[in-house]
């Protein structure tokens, strides 16, 4: 896996759009191999095969998504998780750096497709390896997501950036504080109130605001670690493991945010109220409908 990652990293670090596309597909293929389980598969037709430079997914006609409980016993996932603990092989950092370079290139339709591909990969990486979310506690990476929400970006990029932003803030209060400190609420609400913003993007922005207003939880999400015990480990042990891994990735002394970084729903309601006049109605609707009952911010 490290050889494939090395090849993919070289490609997405290029200034050549074809090589970048190739590298992003290699990462996508790796994630697909981790997340998909083989059924009674038959070789796919040649025209349906992925580029040979990516992982061979030729026998995937009947593949289905693996359940979370199955990942702890999956050798590919455990190897992937192990490699993500260090800076050298962390894919989220490399894809985020690739996104930054893409934003600096001449904008065209093909470039937008590369940005969408990178965002899709990044969202999957943050879901598969929650400790990687700590990179968005750094100004450079949070600013990258906020730049993608600028009005000059196409609606598809804005929508994808919002999905990555939600994933980056999920169970990461320290990232939420960075988002607030960098005027993230101003960015989101300005886009929401812009008459040029499409209705589909406005709907996703509203969903984001509901998500933001949810009560915060200090503990990280339980995810399958790369140990023999897998998902059978207790949440407290998982939290400790994620703290150590998060600090390794980010290069910081600390890991998971302390309780001092947690803000109450009322505090966030007050902050959002600086930019929107109907926040009370949003909170009331959130309490009545409970759209994210299984999610801890």
TrEMBL record:
SUPFAM superfamilies in UniProt: ARM repeat
Matching Pfam families: CDC14
GO-annotated biological processes: cell division
Keywords, alphabetical: Cell cycle, Cell division
Name this protein carries in UniProt: Cell division control 14, SIN component
Organism: Lophiostoma macrostomum CBS 122681
